[in-house]
Write a structure and sequence with these properties.
There is one protein chain. This protein is mainly alpha-helical. It has a single domain, classed as Rossmann fold (3-Layer(aba) Sandwich), CATH 3.40.50. It has helices at residues 24-35, 50-58, 68-99, and strands at 8-10, 41-43, 63-64. Strands 1-2-3 form a three-stranded parallel β-sheet, with helices on one face. Helix 2 packs across helix 3. The longest helix is centred in the C-terminal third of the chain and has 32 residues, at 68-99. It starts with 7 loop residues before the first strand and ends in a 17-residue tail after the last helix. InterPro entries: Aldolase_TIM, FMN-dep_DH, FMN_HAD, FMN_hydac_DH_AS. Residues 1-116 form the FMN hydroxy acid dehydrogenase domain. It holds the Pfam family FMN_dh.
Length: 116
């Protein structure tokens, strides 16, 4: 069966209520492999800081979606609060990448991750 898709979002909204579900981050590599670059893969599950972004991008996501963080900024300080959340996210992403010795998002690969 063929489907015409513009992209796919890997997420397990509600998954934390179901005992034994695979986490979105654990499912991400298999989805990326299956898609094989034919469409963008977006990741939306628990992105709260720069390290979360680095992990998702290193595992093959083309982009991440920010759920709650921007809403917190909006609730606290409106448009300026959202801007501050985004600025802090970018700073944290840059700091995480620098600490990992990576100078570009395009250089994030599975090789930088260590599984214990």
């Amino acid at each position: 069966m063929e489907y015409e898709l513009d992209g796919i979002i890997v997420s397990n909204h509600g998954g934390r209520q179901l005992d034994g579900c695979i986490s979105s981050i654990a499912a991400l590599p298999a989805v990326v492999n299956e898609v094989g670059g034919r469409i963008p893969v977006l990741f939306d599950s628990g992105i709260r800081k720069g390290t979360d972004v680095v992990k998702a991008l290193a595992l093959g996501a083309d982009a991440v979606l920010l759920g709650r963080p921007y809403v917190y900024g909006l609730a606290i300080n409106g448009k300026e609060g959202v801007q501050e959340v985004l600025d802090n996210f970018i700073y944290d992403l840059d700091a995480t990448m620098a600490t990992a010795g990576v100078d570009a998002v395009s250089a994030l690969t599975r090789d930088i991750l260590v599984r214990k």
